[in-house]
Design brief:
alpha/beta
């Protein structure tokens, strides 16, 4: 057996509409299918999905299940992406050089409205 990629990740979110707005309106994902019967939204990111699952908020001071999810951005201009995020009221760390599956590159750290860690990189 050999793993060849990631099909989807599932993030628990307290407010499905707020999270869809963030991931689609700010980060540019597209809503592929919304399943209100089970509180789930499938967001397309390239060939994969980020699934948002409506859930109770994490208790204060609890540790998340995941440190962060790294998303690639085509034609990545770190400062332009940072200014875009700041313009949407998103707190974002300054760009830093980090190592990932595509090697070394500049990336930005931020969190979504539920405190899930995100990294954006070229």
């Amino acid at each position: 057996m050999r793993i060849s990629g990631i099909d989807h990740v599932v993030l628990k979110v307290a407010d499905l509409d707020r999270s869809i707005t963030f991931y689609c309106g700010v980060l540019g994902c597209t809503l592929d299918w919304r399943r209100d019967d089970i509180g789930l939204a499938h967001l397309r990111v390239g060939t994969a999905f980020i699934d948002l699952l409506a859930s109770a908020p994490l208790p204060p001071n609890s540790l998340p299940n995941m440190d962060h999810l790294c998303l690639t951005v085509p034609d990545f201009d770190a400062e332009q992406v940072r200014q875009h995020l700041l313009g949407h009221g998103v707190a974002v760390e300054p760009p830093a050089k980090r190592y990932g599956a595509s090697g070394w590159g500049l990336s930005l750290y931020l969190t979504d409205p539920d405190g899930n860690g995100l990294e954006l990189r070229g």
